[in-house]
Amino acid sequence: MATPQRRRRLRKTIALSVLALLLLLVTCFLTYASLPTLAEPKPLAAVRDDPALRLRETGDAVVLTPTSGASGTGIVFLSGAHIDPAAYASKLSGIVDGGVTVVIARPILNLAILENRPLTTFTGLAPTVNRWYVAGHSLGGVRACQYAKDDYTVAGLILFGSYCGIDVSSTSIPVLSIGGSRDGLTTPSKIRSASHLLPVDATFTTIPGADHADFGDYGPQAGDLSSTTTDASVRSQIANAVLGFVG
Prior knowledge:
The protein is α/β, with parallel strands linked by helices.
């Protein structure tokens, strides 16, 4: 039979082991979160060379502004989980070429779902914009839905390969949902199944041949289907849909 002293030592050993395991798990998570999937270099370089826009990186976001013809409209965009914000610059650059400012948020721990700062953290990076939409890809779109529901200043919501996890059907804001026909993660059927959470007049569009990772430029994604379209086509169709939506 164990003595009281041995039982105390055993409990202490177990407690220290559990604490060590928790610290290891936290360390592993923080290390993972601090190393997002990076942007592919060629598409990002093309954006930097685009004379129609200016790319500026801050601690809070990647900001894309038109060099001329700015419309006064802006979009705060939230990245998919663990994706470098710069990975979306190329696919969103067609929107900027059309006169719309895009602020791609750099979320807490590279996970938009954990982002709790007010929207003004990002809109303040483009003070000349007077009308703001909120958008997001994948889990970034889930967080964008929350911003759209909570912030009365939002002019509209745009979902890229995403759907709302909360009910925003009672809001009066317009909603645009852009999906990919080859998206193996946010599948067209999942978007349809969650459509009742959006206003009845929400606009849905599908990019033929686009997969989940086509909304950015960060390489293939586990669980996705293979794309049957081109980056140029996806960029053009995103620009056409969004520019037509924001007017």
